[in-house]
Design brief:
- Helices cover 81% and strands 0% of the residues.
- It contains 7 helices and no strands.
- It is globular.
């Protein structure tokens, strides 16, 4: 747990309440700066973990969890401010729970379902889109970002299930 990659993941987790406090205090540009740092730390810890052989069970669990909590914290803030509809977050949550469930079934079959490119694109579009929404609260921008998040989320979720459909053939 004392690897550089894991320390960066913990740092990202600690930035989430800082981001929220700044956002709710109306300090959107400071909140945006913290959010961007948190998003960049996701890229940094992944790079460091892979290139310096710092992959750990802690990191495998906490890194994606930190990403999801960061994104969902921002989305909840936007729902509360009327910038994003709640149904969009339900779609994101459904996809996350469904893919996690698929991975659990696969693990029982001694299979690992790696992150797909569509999942990485979904994460990048979501994080970038939420940055844009922090920067501006224009209704048209909010609508476009929401739909980009929903479409990339649905596509990536469908792809995970399609590519790994054989997992269900082997499930008890």
């Amino acid at each position: 747990m004392n690897t550089t990659a894991n320390k960066i993941t913990i740092f990202r987790i600690l930035l989430i309440p800082v981001f929220l406090v700044l956002a709710y205090m109306g300090q959107r540009y400071w909140a945006l700066a913290v959010y961007i740092i948190a998003c960049l730390s996701d890229m940094a810890d992944g790079y460091i973990a892979r290139h310096y052989n710092q992959i750990s069970n802690f990191g495998k669990f906490m890194d994606p969890l930190a990403d999801k909590v960061l994104v969902l914290a921002a989305m909840c803030f936007f729902i509360e401010n009327g910038q994003m509809p709640g149904w969009a977050v339900v779609i994101v949550l459904f996809r996350e729970f469904a893919v996690s469930g698929l991975r659990l079934i696969a693990v029982e079959q001694q299979r690992v379902i790696a992150a797909a490119w569509s999942g990485k694109i979904k994460t990048a579009c979501t994080m970038l889109g939420l940055c844009v929404m922090l920067f501006t609260s224009h209704p048209l921008v909010n609508l476009i970002v929401t739909w980009v998040i929903v479409i990339t989320t649905l596509y990536s979720g469908i792809e995970y299930f399609y590519v790994n459909r054989d997992v269900f053939k082997n499930a008890d």
